Amino acid sequence: MNEIIIRSNKGEYFPGEVICGVVYLNIENPTSGHGIQLQFKGYEYFFYEYSCEKGRNKIESTKDYVDCSVSLYSQSDSFAMGSYLFPFKVNLPNIIPGCFYARRNGSVTWEGKVVYWLEATVTGADIKSFQDIVIYQCTEDMVANEKLTTAQNVTHTMKTLLSKKNIDFTVRLMDQVQYVGESARLRMIITNDTNVKVSKFQIKLFRDLNFTSKSELSADKLTSNMSSLARKTYIRAEDGPFVVWKIVGNNTDSDSVDLVRILDNILIPLKEKSVPIPPSVKGHHIECQYGLEILITLSNGETVTINHPVPCILPPKNKQWESWEVPTWVYTGEVVISSSRFSATSSELSGRGFATLPGFQAL
Asked: Which fold has domain 3-136+317-354?
């Protein structure tokens, strides 16, 4: 059986990175195929279907971020029997939204997604292969230089006729980025110069999911969670900030030590009913952001509110890429380099970008 496989050097990428990959081709039977066509595509799409004064209505928008199709290799004759490796390189744009998917069914039905994939086709034969590409919303530089999360500091002042004392709260996410389905770790440090104690705390994880359509709707098609202005319609998909998760803790004199320990490592599950939450994204039509609200109640009845953004919740790992089983024939294939602008050069094949790809480790 003839077979084609497209494979990138890793499953997840930051904007601006270079995708190094290879198209593997194995010809066991005579074929009319005589070339390799490479495609890289990515787009954003949402629809929102609901009831209004006019009955059922549907809003949808789409935007292409990558739509590239090139000839990676071509020859006049059909491929001879054997195995071939066609290495390629693709530069990602510096500014593109990360991968995203969310859907809700019911009286209001909506779906939003941002997806990317590579596809290889044998020219002249009905053989093709594709692979998903996971793009992260943030950049590698932001993560490396810890530019995503910063501590939130709040000072609460207690005043009396004779003195003024403070309770200082410092709240910070312990990791620069979070991954859907895992748990974010939150640390709260309390420096207390007063006799007032923390009696209760409440932490909420909010999500704000919004869709934007480049079409202005008439008033009879708008609902309470929509607004229309300057030829655009703005939709709060979950009717405003939605509470994803909440925890409440109490304190008494007997368990004050336990409370301090809990506040030092608060685990925030990035799941809803055991299902991973949608990742953060800032696209042309879809924006999904998260934030924390921490409400502290003091023993004198006063409250302190701390808001902490959660700027980067990344999509899940590329399961398709991780689950690939390498056929034995890829290690004996002939490496074919072409004049295509996407083809890798001989010197690039010995670099880091191709080191993890089967068939190139020894080059």
From this structure: Immunoglobulin-like (2.60.40)
